[in-house]
Amino acid sequence: MSYQTEAMTTQPQMTVTSYTVSHWSSDVCDCCDDCRICLCGAFIPCILGCKVAQDNGDSCCLPFLPGAMIALRTSIRDRYHINGSVCDDWVIMTCCPFCGLCQMAREQKARG
């Protein structure tokens, strides 16, 4: 029995994806930049959290899970290539969760 083999004449090429690291479009304490988001975050944060999660492609129930808002913030940071770390996300969502939630909502609105 004879087998025919084909010689590979070219090597597979490596694909490189590059992106530019950006920053948040607004600071954490810029809550009054968008009054609707600010009021929603202040008086009905559970609704705003659900909207932010859904706009990120996650379940509406995500904000009700312990620690999930930190993961959501990290996901948004990764999606938009925003500079920062998980430690930064933890500090913001632990120390000022409503401001952090409003910042995420403003970022999604600014980036479409």
From TrEMBL:
<dbReference type="InterPro" id="IPR006461">
    <property type="entry name" value="PLAC_motif_containing"/>
</dbReference>
<protein>
    <submittedName>
        <fullName>Cornifelin</fullName>
    </submittedName>
</protein>
<dbReference type="Pfam" id="PF04749">
    <property type="entry name" value="PLAC8"/>
</dbReference>
<comment type="similarity">
    <text>Belongs to the cornifelin family.</text>
</comment>
